[in-house]
Design a protein that fits this description.
132 residues, mainly alpha, 0% strand
């Protein structure tokens, strides 16, 4: 398994665990539009995993977009004070424990890692193409 596929797998696992944390451990409901975006992001991350496993040429740029988008989206949704009724669930206002906070930060870190892995894979592919 490539580094890109491993980091995509890590992100997908952490996204699923984050969803489970919301569903099983938190009392506050996730705003509907935010839940839709979160579910869509999880499905898209799974798609990146699939194309990374197949070593598709679009996997690296998709990994950059999905990885960095996930990290940025988690920061907007959970770390910034309430900025949108539809897309905010500021953890500072909720009664969440360290596990929930760790879920947010671990998922953000995995997103950043996937983005970097995608950039490295793009650079490597470009280098191989130039050597031909």
């Amino acid at each position: 398994m490539t580094t890109l596929a491993r980091t995509a797998l890590l992100l997908v696992v952490l996204l699923v665990l984050h969803v489970l944390d919301h569903e099983l451990r938190q009392a506050a409901p996730v705003p509907g539009p935010l839940a839709v975006v979160g579910l869509a992001g999880t499905v898209i991350a799974a798609g990146v995993l699939l194309i990374a496993l197949r070593r598709h040429p679009l996997a690296p740029p998709a990994a950059v977009a999905v990885g960095l988008g996930t990290a940025f989206g988690f920061a907007l949704a959970h770390l910034l004070p309430h900025w949108s009724g539809a897309f905010s669930q500021f953890y500072g206002d909720l009664d969440v424990d360290g596990v929930s906070w760790a879920s947010v930060f671990a998922t953000m870190a995995a997103g950043l890692t996937l983005g970097v892995a995608g950039l490295r894979a793009m650079r490597s592919a470009r280098r191989v193409a130039l050597e031909r």
